[in-house]
Amino acid sequence: MAEAASGAHEDETTRRDFIFIAAGAAAAVGAAATVWPFIDQMNPAADTLALSTTEVDLSVVELGQQVRVLWQGKPVFVRHRTPAEIASAQRDDYATLKDPQLDSQRLLQSNGQAGRPEWLVLQASCTHLGCVPTFVEGSAFGGWFCPCHGSDYDTSGRIRRGPAPHNLYVAPYVYMNDTTIRIG
Amino acid sequence: MSGPSTYEPASGFTRWLDKRLPILRLAHDSFVAYPTPRNLNYWWTFGAMLSLCLVVQIVTGVVLAMHYVPHVEHAMDSVQRFRRDVPFGWLIQPMHAVGASMFFIAVYIHMFRGLYYGSYKAPREILWILGCVIYLLMVATAFLGYTLPWGQMSFWGATVITNLLGALPLVGESIKNWLMGGFAIDQPTLNRFFSLHYLLPFVIAGVTVLHVWALHEAGQNNPTGVDVKSKADTVPFTPHATMKDLFAVSLFLILFSVFVFYMPDALGHADNYIPANPLQTPPEIVPEWYLLPFYAILRAFDFNIGPIDSKLAGVLAMFAAIGILFLLPWLDTSRVRSMRYRPIARQFFLIFVVVCVVLGWCGGQNPGRILAKAGPFSATLTWVQGGQVVEAPVSASSEGGFDQAAAAVEQQLRGQGATLTAVRREGATQGVVRGVVGGAEQTRTVRGETADAVEAEITTVRAEVGAAAPFFIVERRVPPTFTVTNLSQVMTAYYFLFFLLILPILGLRETPGRVPDTIAKPVTDGKAQGAA
Ligand code: HEM
Ligand code: FES
């Protein structure tokens, strides 16, 4: 013991070295465990997470119109597509797409069942930097246009031109009955 | 630098205090006896303005916080109430808002000063880096503060910036939600931004203490960049620097007051008086003027770089633009500090200043705006007047074989005498080819100043020809254009080349001018000393 403490064998691992490392490691773990709650408190809280579904009554949305609703604080489009919009979306399934997806894939409900072509439910945040695109009748691809940096989306919400990297994301939704959907 | 203390406590009390807490000694040594180079010019007075700005922001900010309500429903109203109904609110709120801009005007001049006179070089590297830390904190504080009034620009500016962090691979989405405290900018975001906006200025104050400490350890640089060699090179801080600083600060306050009293909203964006609406994006989203150069760098990247997509590349470049300042002391290889004696470097520096201003201009423009083009936009329409339409279905055996199958059908229609053909795909393997047989082929070319003007022309021609032609083939031609984005790209390239190429190489190759032996020599010009 005395020998170790006096450092007679310089290169040898002593009990003291072990205690230093063990104490240091315990302190580091303790510090991390103390810091973590202060970091994690900034994550979405239970009530924010609980606010996760929104119901939409489809009967009020006229043909060729859309409603914007908030889901988890984010805007969502529910669009009642006209036959012309549907036809154009299906025709463009085989056009040159930046983020190729079939229109039918974009209508899928969150339970995996097929959707209905006249109802398109999309997250209304441009996949570039999050602006809300506007539906422009007669725009280059017939669908949405983002005013922020000029991304053009088609009638299926697929990106066709501009800086956005992805199609507008589909919001997870299911049909509750014929005229109601639940988002989330 | 600061030699042995010359402080002499004058009274019994100060002698008593000096033994226990030598705070008066510190103040005396730092701000009275402290020797400053005798040749400092007015570019050296901006540090004083910055200190004033920090005090103004903290004092007005603490007052604002007494009346501000960090709630999405009440935030804007509480600011308006403060401005309209609270005694002197009309004065104090604009002081804070304008103060942020004044702070940035001063810090930019202060930083360019450092760049020009080589104040970042040994032994002032830490001093410079602490300055960069302060600047970074200022940017963060200003961004957080701008969200607090909860107007349209507040909301959408915050949305765009938090979405930028979402561009980071893997962790981006979690960091974004962690920062927002939810899945969108909302009440939790506003609350925490308020808390942090209150905190950061005090952190800035702390780092400023370190900054001034480092300054007093290394000593001030001066316009010649030559080290202080003797007492003849310096004058005491008080009264020389104190009075000069006070004079410059007075001028600065006049400018400050012009804004506060006559145009309190001139530096802000009018849209921020529209309450935040998460369902409606304003027609343009622009940050405050002092962040525009970085916004331009962000948007200059509209192309992917290998595996890095354009969005991430923009974010990385934007942070790199600030990050590179931290490395500057080691990037500039010149042994001469002041650009006064580096004639070539000085030219590049002046271009750099212009580049920063142009970047700022670009940041405020629509990125697609065309600045120059090599010709008009045009389109050629081809149609057949009075022919007969024929149609033939295409059905390919596989999805990949569609193009080949369609070409075969087109060929077949041509064989039947069709002069114009067009393919329309209607499914994975299905489609139709239409053609016109007979009739007279016509073409017409239209031109316009913009792509939209050409589209309008095309529509007119189609309406004119009308039912006489069953279908048109339109070939659009876009001239090479030079847009705001292209300009930002050129400017961004210079910004980085200046630090990464020009300064490192120039420092090794240039022949500097003759540097004076001492600071005092050019100042006193051989005349008797003490003429300061
Ligand atoms: C809150 C912000 C800041 C305050 C209050 C502040 C304050 C000061 C003061 C009082 C001085 C001495 C007077 C002068 O030389 O002008 C100084 C010097 C200096 N500051 Fe700052 N500063 C701030 C931000 C910055 C930033 C952002 C940078 C650079 C990135 C910077 C770089 C320097 C340098 C290099 C010096 C030494 C100047 C020399 O002697 O050549 N400072 N600062
Ligand atoms: S946010 Fe839509 S194009 Fe940039």
Order of helix and strand elements from N to C terminus of chain B: HHEHHHHHHHEHHHHEEEHEEEHEEHH
Number of domains of chain A: 2
Q: Tell me which protein chains meet in the greatest interface and how many residues each side has.
A: A-B, 31 and 38 residues
**Sheet of most strands of chain A:** 4 strands, antiparallel
- The CATH topology of the largest domain in chain B, please? Cytochrome Bc1 Complex, Chain C
Query: Can you tell me the CATH superfamily of the largest domain in chain A?
Result: Rieske [2Fe-2S] iron-sulphur domain
Q: Using DSSP, what is the number of strands of chain B?
A: 10
In which range does the helix fraction of chain B lie? 55-70%
Oligomer: heterodimer
CATH architecture of the largest domain in chain B: Up-down Bundle
Uncertain runs of chain A are none
Structure described in brief:
The complex is a heterodimer of chains A (184) and B (532). Chain A has helices at 2-5, 15-40, 46-50, 83-91, 103-107, and strands at 54-57, 66-71, 74-80, 119-123, 134-135, 142-146, 151-154, 159-161, 173-177, 180-183.
Structure report:
The complex is a heterodimer of chains A (184) and B (532). With 184 residues, chain A is of the alpha+beta class. Chain A folds into 2 domains: 1-43; 49-183, Rieske Iron-sulfur Protein (3-layer Sandwich), CATH 2.102.10. Chain A is built from 5 helices and 10 strands; from the N terminus they run αααβββααβββββββ. Chain A has helices at 2-5, 15-40, 46-50, 83-91, 103-107, and strands at 54-57, 66-71, 74-80, 119-123, 134-135, 142-146, 151-154, 159-161, 173-177, 180-183. In chain A, strand 6 and strand 7 form a beta hairpin. The longest helix of chain A has 26 residues, at 15-40. Chain A is elongated and about 85 Å long. Chain A starts with a helix and ends with a strand. Chain B is mostly helical and 532 residues long. Chain B has 3 domains: 42-226 and 236-267, Up-down Bundle (Cytochrome Bc1 Complex, Chain C); 291-374 and 482-532, no CATH class; 377-479, no CATH class. Chain B has 17 helices and 10 strands. In chain B, the strands form 4 sheets. Chain B has a 3-stranded antiparallel sheet with strand order 8-4-9. A 3-stranded antiparallel sheet of chain B has the order 5-7-6, covered by helices on one side. Chain B has a two-stranded antiparallel sheet with strand order 1-2. In chain B, a hairpin with a 4-residue loop joins strand 6 and strand 7. In chain B, helix 3 (46-67) packs antiparallel against helix 9 and helix 11 (292-300) crosses helix 16. Chain B is elongated. Chain A binds chain B through residues 39, 42-45, 48, 68, 70, 72-75, 90-91, 93-95, 124, 128-133, 146-150, 163, 165, and chain B through 156, 159-160, 162-164, 177-186, 188, 192, 278-281, 283-285, 299, 302, 309-311, 367-368, 402, 424-428. The complex binds protoporphyrin IX containing FE and FE2/S2 (inorganic) cluster (FES).
